[in-house]
Each structure stands twice: as structure tokens, then as C-alpha cells.
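Duplicate of #3305? Posting structure anyway:
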């Protein structure tokens, strides 16, 4: 089924059963999820998925994940997965918000999915392989992935964002731009399934 969350107070999605997008042969927990929650706590997902097609300890959306405003917190080391297979990648619809620090967001990649083209000195704007994150002040900290030479297989690539206060000096060059400070935030990339 579909789930739409619109609120100004913190919310939690949990339950003792299994959320399923289909009664028989489910491929994910939800067909679609919309996040529109402007509270400082956002929406927290608790629990473990029992959907065989998805990684253990995850919540998954087979169709569209929409961020209108607000953030998602994942609890207990659970990940949030968009898509249900290498042929059904899911869709991200993005206006604002994202996953909170410490949350893991994974996306299915097809066998030849290259991702978002990364060009020096330019910020990507596509949602094709956007990983939307926000820091503790709700500032956007998204990541984009590009597979330069995709292998002939697909799978799930996940990103975990960690908000670390402060900035550090250092000289970095991005095309013609020379940067002398960087945020202490970190993004870690991992494979959750298949051969992405």
C-alpha cells in the first residue's frame, strides 16, 4: 500500500507485523511513501523487514519515495531501500529534506545504470542517483553516485551520512576552483546486495 505522512510533530512508523506492498509475493514494504513533516524529529522508521527480495533489517519502497519536506531517521541500524530489483529501480521525487545523520539509504542500480554524471566545479541537480541527506540544522547534505564503468550486473548501493560539527582547513582543487575549508561531515558508500 501507499503511505503519506504529513505532520508538524515527530512521527514513528512501526508495528509487530510486516508491512507489504503486495499481499502475495511482496517485493517491498510500501509501493510509495511521501514525507512532509516539518518537525525537528521528522519521521522515524523502526523494525525489520521480512521481505525476501530486500536486505535484512530494512524498510523498502518499490515505487516512489517523495520528499516534500522533513527528514527520515532510521532506527536500530536499519536501512531504507528504494526500488525492488535491478529491473525496478524505484523513483525519487525530491523537493526538500532527506535522511538524518546516521541513516543508511540504499538504491537499486540496474546492470548498466551509470548514475549521475559528475562534472568538476558543478553541483549535480538530477534525482537519478541522488542520496538526499540533511544535517542537524536541516541543511542539505546530499550525495550523488556515478558508476564510470558499470559492470554487467546490478544491486544495491547505499550511502550513510554522518554529521560532524565544524570545518577543517586544507587546500582542495575542484577544476578551476580552489577550496581552503571543508566540512567535517562524512559519507560512506557500501554494497547491500548484488554486484553494483
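Output from current build:
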Amino acid at each position: 500500500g501507499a503511505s503519506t505522512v504529513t505532520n508538524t510533530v515527530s512521527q514513528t512508523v512501526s508495528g509487530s507485523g510486516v508491512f507489504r506492498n503486495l499481499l502475495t509475493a511482496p517485493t517491498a514494504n510500501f509501493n510509495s511513501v511521501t514525507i512532509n513533516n516539518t518537525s525537528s524529529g521528522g519521521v522515524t522508521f523502526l523494525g525489520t523487514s521480512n521481505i525476501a527480495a530486500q536486505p535484512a533489517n530494512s524498510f523498502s519502497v518499490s515505487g516512489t519515495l517523495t520528499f516534500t519536506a522533513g527528514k527520515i531517521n532510521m532506527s536500530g541500524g536499519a536501512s531504507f531501500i528504494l526500488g525492488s530489483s535491478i529491473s525496478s529501480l524505484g523513483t525519487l521525487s525530491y523537493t526538500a529534506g532527506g535522511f538524518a545523520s546516521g541513516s543508511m539509504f540504499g538504491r537499486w542500480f540496474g546492470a548498466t545504470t551509470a548514475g549521475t554524471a559528475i562534472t568538476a566545479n558543478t553541483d549535480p541537480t538530477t534525482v537519478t542517483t541522488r542520496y538526499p541527506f540533511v544535517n542537524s540544522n536541516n541543511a542539505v547534505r546530499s550525495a550523488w553516485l556515478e558508476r564510470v564503468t558499470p559492470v554487467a550486473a546490478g544491486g544495491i548501493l547505499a550511502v550513510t551520512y554522518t554529521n560532524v560539527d565544524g570545518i577543517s582547513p586544507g587546500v582542495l582543487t575542484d577544476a578551476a576552483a580552489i577550496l581552503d575549508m571543508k566540512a567535517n561531515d562524512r559519507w560512506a558508500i557500501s554494497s547491500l546486495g548484488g554486484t553494483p
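Confirmed duplicate; merging threads. DSSP finds no helices and 16 strands in the chain. The chain has a mean pLDDT of 87.
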